[in-house]
Amino acid sequence: MGLKKVLISIAAPTAAIGTLVGMPIAAVKLTDMLLNPEVDNSKFEKYENDFLKTNRGDIIRLPIDENPIPVVLGDMDKKTKEYIVEGINCLDNISENINYTIFDADDFNVKSNVKHISFEVVDTITDSSPTTAGNTTFKYSNRTAEILYPIEIKIEDSYADWFWDAEYTQSVLTTIVKHELMHTLGFKDLYNEEDKNRSIMYYGLANDSPSTYTQEDIEKIQYCYDGKEVATTSHPNKVEILNYSNYLDDLKKQKEQDDGLSL
Question: In 3D, which of 149, 147, 144, 119 has the Cα closest to residue 134?
């Protein structure tokens, strides 16, 4: 037991938590500036240095509406799912406008282009960087600077399988989840040493870096996303894994009631 703890304490600080934006960066063309409408960055500019940006400098953001974002959990251990859900709950309860609904992959049998975030546990995320703990992949629109679904989050399996020390596994895994979810909101990795203690977006897992959202992270999320005029219809206090078919039936019934089609 003691030997394994030493190995983890050495490995954790060297592990990177990274993001990969799945759209190549190209030179900005004059036609792009002329044909695409100007994007309103005003609600994000206070923290613009913490965001990813498009080719022409617009702040990349997640489009949100009154509907919860489906999160699909792939083939993984039940305990791993519980830890991931705990990380998701943390962000869900920070923001009034950002809500999640969680499904097992077997229940979410819809086309891949349906709005959702997927979580997968994989053997190795990238061959070029075998110490990468997590990776978020998405495309975005150069025209609107909005992130496009589906969004894929991959977690390296060694960070989900340390069940000989459940408390430590839970701490590391939920930290990775919280970090990657901020990537889905457009926030980028932070690399400066002074960023280590101020934000969960510091790029590496270090013993002295935050394991959860700092007060600054909370302020960023709420300022950039809760300041928007979104009519939130549902904000659960705790997210649970749902059956997708039952979920669709409930949505249909709710829509019928809202439209006055049923008593």
Answer: 119
Residue with tokens 């894994």: 241
Domains in the chain: how many in total? 1
Single-letter residue type at 70: P
Could you give the 3-state DSSP secondary structure of residue 150? strand
Q: What whole-number distance in Å separates Cα of residue 200 and Cα of residue 72?
A: 23
Q: Is residue 41 part of a domain?
A: yes
CB 175 within 8 A of CB 206: no
Examine the pLDDT at 257 and tell me if it is beyond 80: no
- What CATH number has the domain bearing residue 104? 3.40.390.10
Using CA atoms, how far residue 86 sits from 15, 71, 120, 149, in Å, is: 21, 13, 16, 22
Question: Which pLDDT does position 16 carry in this prediction?
Answer: 55
Measuring CA to CA, how many Å separate 203 from each of 94, 122, 132, 135? Answer: 22, 20, 10, 11
Q: With 70 as the cut, is the pLDDT of residue 89 above it?
A: yes
Token couple for 87: 């990380």
| H or E, element range at 19 | strand 16-21
Q: Tell me the two tokens of residue 52.
A: 């990813």
Structural tokens at position 235: 């904000």
Domain extent, residue 106, equals 2-258
